[in-house]
Amino acid sequence: MRSRLVLAAAFAAAFASTAAGCGSAGAASDPAGSPGAGASVAPAGTAAFVAIDSDANSSQRQALNGLLAKIPGGDALLTKLRQSFEQQSQLSWANDVKPALGPELDIAVLPAASGGEPETVLLTQPNDPSKLDALLAKLPGTPPATAQVDGWTAISGSQAALDTVTGATSHLADSSVYQEASGKLAADALVTAYANGAEARQLVSGLGGSLQPGHEQLVWASGDVVATGGGLRVDGYTRKEGGTATQPYASQLVDEIPSGALAVADFQVHQDTGTQPSSSSPLGGALQSLGKALHGETAVYVSPGAPIPAFTLVTRTSDPQAVLDALQSALSSIGSSAGQGKTGSFGLGSILGALQLSHAIVGQDLVVSTSQAAVDAFKAGGKPLADDDTFKQASSAAGMPDKTTGFVYVNLKDALSAVQGIAALSGGSLPGDLSALRTLTAYGSGTSGGVSSFTVFLEMR
Predict the structure, then answer these.
(1) What's the pLDDT score for residue 423?
(2) What's the whole-number mean pLDDT along residues 312-319?
(3) Looking at residue 330, what is its pLDDT?
(4) Is the pLDDT of residue 6 over 50?
């Protein structure tokens, strides 16, 4: 077990190091084939599969280097991380790890045997096999086992797992489920990931949990991480059976939320007509009551304020008083739960429980805020979020469509400045210079052909 963990840490450190521009110089080259080429040797029943671009000269690694170069001190920070790894592992990046890397590192998680735990197998095509052998020999404890499979080196702490890989007669690349899931992913990505829904449910069930409530079942999930000139993009996809597809909507509240918001979360609340179990805790019951009171489009946003930002909820509701009562009850329950059994406690829970909320009904909207100034700004009906230049740039950079199943937007540049100001009041500060981080945008794109998708985009300049 320890050997496997150290080996995983070694490759993780190698990934960070090459991202920092520590790889060999040279022109960018596109990786051969599609991401996850190791799926050609992974067993068809693989529960999860992750592929990492470990080629320091690939186009994606060069794009990532360009993003890291925008962060003042970014190279120095990653160098420190690499040095810390070398001290703890007693391995040299330049002499031990780097020469052992191939252009791609794949991680296959095999289903758990009856009564056992899932096993992990690493798949790579080292540039110099002897260097990989030397690296494995230097790991503390019992060296992991290896096997050769169709030009790939399989590495695992379990011989049984290797036998499963070498003895496979059908492979993941030939699985129709994997083909559908991976077909959604970018052909050139830093990282791709896949999970088989049936195997994931079996794993979680074996641990005593439940992956999804009700009759909705995950068939597969996949995702990728792609570096672009303007930031880092994550796309995710899921196919589910049963349940009701979430329909995208065009936000109307973006035309009413005031411009200059530091963060916004906009979503539709759909009431479930099925019978829901009642919570046995006061907090759980209060949150359930709040969920039942909300209906239709709702947004929570943060706007600048002194000495701390204002938090505001706006929702369209036929019963404003029910929402107000449920919200205040939830906040009071949070305060009671946080302070239960603690004499003289004063933390986040007690602060929330003591909040005095301001509110107003503006047209069809109920506005509830921690700040009367924020309520007044909403009522004033000035320049809306939809016309905010930063929001428009973030939406365009992230490719956010007019209709989504919900979105989150953060103006990182201004939000981090506000956090820095609050930290300074207590004598603290944020780590490093984060001025290159501009915005964070996440949204769901609805369901097409039975597949739901979401995107997260970190914009950098």
Answers:
(1) 65
(2) 88
(3) 77
(4) no
Q: Domain residue spans in the chain? A: 2-240, 249-338+345-455
Can you list the alpha helix ranges (DSSP code H) found in 207-319? 282-293
- One-character DSSP codes across 286-317: HHHHHHHH--EEEEEEEE--SSS-EEEEEEE-
**What Rg value do the Cα atoms of the chain yield, rounded?**
25
Rounded average pLDDT over 63-74: 85
Helix or strand (DSSP H, E) at 51: strand 48-53
Distances (CA, A) of 154 to 2, 6, 178: 17, 16, 20
* Beta bridge pairs of residue 240: 218
52, exposed or middle or buried, with CB in 10 Å at 0-12, 13-18, 19+? buried
Q: Per-residue DSSP letters for 340-390?
A: TT-TT--SHHHHHHTPPPEEEEETTEEEEES-HHHHHHHHHT-SBGGG-HH
Which pTM value belongs to this model?
0.85
Report whether 236 contacts 221 (CB < 8 A): yes
Residue 376 in tokens: 């007044």
Dist CA 120 CA 91 (whole Å): 22
Give the other-Cβ count within 10 Å of 430's Cβ: 12
More confident residue, 380 or 329: 380
**Measured distance CA(378)–CA(268) in Å, rounded:** 20
For the residues 330-346, what does the mean pLDDT come to? Answer: 57
Contacts of 363 (CB under 8 A, 6+ apart): none
